[in-house]
Amino acid sequence: MGRVTERRRTLRIRDGAVTTRPDTLVAEEPLEIRLNGRPLAITMRTPGDDFALAAGFLVSEGVLGEGSEVQSIVYCAGATAGGVNTYNVVDVKLAPGVVVPDITLERNVYTTSSCGLCGKASLDAVRTTTRHPVADTPPVRVTPGLLSGLPDRLREAQRVFDRTGGLHAAALFSEAGELLDIREDVGRHNAVDKLVGRALTDDRLPLSRAILLVSGRASFELAQKAVMAGIPMLAAVSAPSSLAVDLAVETGLTLVGFLRGPSMNVYAGEHRIALKAPAGEG
Questions:
Q1: How many CB atoms lie within 10 A of CB 242?
Q2: Quick one: signal sequence residues (predicted)?
Q3: What string of pLDDT tens digits covers the 282 residues of the chain?
Q4: N or C: which end of the chain has fewer CB within 10 A?
Q5: Can you list the domains of the chain with their CATH numbers?
Q6: Per residue in 97-129, is it b (16+ CB within 10 Å) or e — as a string?
Q7: In angstroms, what CA-CA distances link 14 with 11, 19, 24?
């Protein structure tokens, strides 16, 4: 809807000199996601790719697994008294025959808290509900050298970040290092949902030969989204959480953290990292 950025007056102080000028900021607005007309969740996001965001969110929740399961995604009347369409409410209508899950308060807490029902129940829930088990994907092996070059390529592709300095990014790369898609958003989880949702509507799920790279840390929620989309490898430029590591071990996801130049930590799924044999071996 063209509201990715907004302008605000700012007071600039540089080396004692004071000026006023407009600054470009990333837009942040709420998006209510409805499923067959019923409210499901609200997320704060950067407007744009809202339909993909909603579809990707439903993939991560186990509602959707194929593009054919979506009948329509539309904007509907907003929250204003006059019923004006604010483009902040999206309704996803499932195709006939697709089972609508029970939408409970517990489910909503789980999906929006980023830690949710933390513990063994959460790990089991993701492992048993994904339609695209990562452990069953074709073998994907990448070298540390290939991984080391991906953060710079992600940063170079962040067009809105260059104007605002206030956006996270998520990108999909092929196992050969080709940039397949990139999305930016004020929330890392939203950026991933936009990637996954686009893949769903393009009938590209599961993403069984893709590498997901995120610009910040790797939380349980991001690992969950990778597993639900069938992505075998998640890499982050910062640290993972302990529960993200537990989920990666539980599901077979390759999890790489602190990916900065030639340095990185592999927390799980090291069988997908093609290492050179130490000198004297082989």
A1: 11
A2: none
A3: 457 778 888 888 888 898 998 887 878 889 999 999 999 999 999 999 999 999 999 999 889 999 999 999 999 876 666 767 788 999 999 999 998 876 553 444 334 434 434 455 566 777 668 899 998 877 889 999 999 999 999 988 876 655 555 578 999 999 999 999 999 998 889 999 999 999 999 999 999 999 999 998 999 999 999 999 999 999 999 999 999 999 999 999 999 999 998 999 999 999 999 987 655 555
A4: C
A5: 134-272 (3.40.140.10)
A6: ebeeeebeeebeebbeebebebeeebbeebbee
A7: 10, 8, 18
Q: Are 184 and 160 in contact (CB under 8 A)?
A: yes
- Single out the residue of 172, 155, 188 nearest to residue 230, CA to CA: 172
* CB-CB contact of 267 with 240 (8 Å): yes
Q: Which residue, among 211, 227, 56, 269, has the nearest Cα to 128 in the 3D structure?
A: 227
What's the CA dihedral at 114, 119, 122, 128 to 10 degrees?
150
Question: Tokens in use for 195?
Answer: 């990637």
Entry pTM:
0.86
Q: Say if residues 187 and 166 touch (Cβ distance below 8 Å).
A: no
Query: Phi, psi at residue 129, to the nearest 5°?
Result: -100, -15
3-state SS assignment for residue 114: coil
* Gap between the Cα atoms of 43 and 58, Å rounded: 13
Residue type for position 53: L
Which pLDDT belongs to residue 107? 46
Distances (CA, A) of 86 to 38, 39, 74, 146: 18, 16, 12, 43
Annotated catalytic sites, by residue? 115
The string of DSSP letters for 220-264 reads: HHHHHHHHHTT--EEEESSPBPHHHHHHHHHHT-EEEEEEETTEE
